[in-house]
Amino acid sequence: MPVPSLPRPRPTARAVVVALVAGAVALVPGTAYAHGRPAAPPAHGRPVGPPPRPVNHAPDRPVDVGTSNPWTDCSTSAPTPLRSTTPTLRAVLSDVDGGVLEAVFQVRDGRTKRPLWSATTAPQGSGVSHAVTVPEGVLRDGRTYEWSVQGRDAAGRKSPEVRCRVAVDATAPGPSQVTAVPGAGAVYAEDAVSGGVGVAGAFLLEAPGTDDVVGFLYAFDGGPARVDLEPGATAATVTWTPTTAGPHGLSVQAVDAAGNVGPERFYRFTVASASSSPTGNARWTLDEGAGTTATDATGGQVLTLSPSTTWTAGLQEELAAMTDGALLLDEADDGAATAAPLLDTTGSWSVAAFVRADGSAPGTVVSQDGEGTDAFRLGTGTVACEDGVDLCWSLSVAGADGAGGTTVTSTVPVVPGAWVALFAVRDAAQGTVRLDACSFGTVDEPGDQVPVEGATASAAAGVASTGPFRLGGAQDGASPWSGAISGVRTWGGVVDVAQERRLCSMGA
């Protein structure tokens, strides 16, 4: 019996759609299915879908931020002093993506943060400096401000903002004041003749009525220099040593924290010539090496040697193989002296002597004759030495009546065969005396050449000098020096430790 044929089911709407899509896909060249999904495109084909969108990074944080005209760096904390009301603001902008960037500058009130002015620069390439000048009328002298800069790219993305604080100070300091002060070899008063060639002078620089001065520009005879004030100080002292006699000038200008420079103060003074040098200034290098006299390098008094005194190698020749002479004092009658008084021992005076001790007994290196006694003796002694020390460097100064004198000593040890520099100083204004020393040592054991400042002692008045200035002994012939003297300098005033340092570094 024939099998009856069954009627075919009608396709559903979904089946029709799937079939149509499948047929359409089959007609597209290069399209295939894998497990019901489109297969990967062939190697020679392009990826299916849109390309990835590029990423636009924000510009970098601005660098080299500050001002020019005048030049300052950016400070985000304490306001930077700024001596202009129309500064140029600057910054370097960069972007990892390259392209062009513009800088957006803005100025705000430092207290209220209220915007006062802004400007945008023309677009420039990455890594380029941008700058704008603040116009007149925006900034006012004496006010504090905050300014900022931010980079912006062509798509509008912005960099981090950098903010800087400034304090506008466009007012220069007032006139400087110059005062010649004690502390060096001479006091060079204004419009006066004083001092001498090789005699240092100290000058106090001030700017009264100005509270923000940080230093002074100064020049002696046109040689420019600057001295900065110590924190909290309002004045500075500068020292100068003339190399020629005659008129000289010191110009001074105060400088404030913003860099403003005050008006010039010109101070005139005259350095005395050798023939008119004040009493007490002398320098004997003792480099003659032969003969019976030693010449004062300042043109003053000559030292006449005793018949038994001889010459020998000096400090620098013995320690540094440099040409240098000295007096050798190895007999009781050895020594040298001037024909007349040198120092005014009733006033301020200073003596520097470069000496070597060859013995262990007390002795006198330098002395000045007074009425019936020595106005002072400088050498070695046994009085007032430190505990346990039998012999020390010593300075004895007689009182005004020739009695009741004062003795000061140094802690620098007396070492036979070793060189030292001694500095005897009497300050009449302070009524004090002191003895400083620095050690040069020996070839085998060099010293540090650093002045050791001795303790000061009261010496209200001194006996007047009436006779010669002596090397190697005193007027009574007692305590002759055993050793060598390589150089002697004297001043009719007070030398300071700075001058001592220079001499200790130079030698005799």
Automatic annotation (TrEMBL):
UniProt entry keywords in alphabetical sequence: Signal
SUPFAM superfamilies assigned: Concanavalin A-like lectins/glucanases
Domain of life: Bacteria
Region (Disordered): 37-62
Database matches in Pfam families: Laminin_G_3
Signal peptide: 1-34
Biased composition annotated in UniProt, kind: Low complexity: 37-47
Coiled coil: none
Record's protein name: LamG domain-containing protein
Organism: Cellulomonas flavigena (strain ATCC 482 / DSM 20109 / BCRC 11376 / JCM 18109 / NBRC 3775 / NCIMB 8073 / NRS 134)
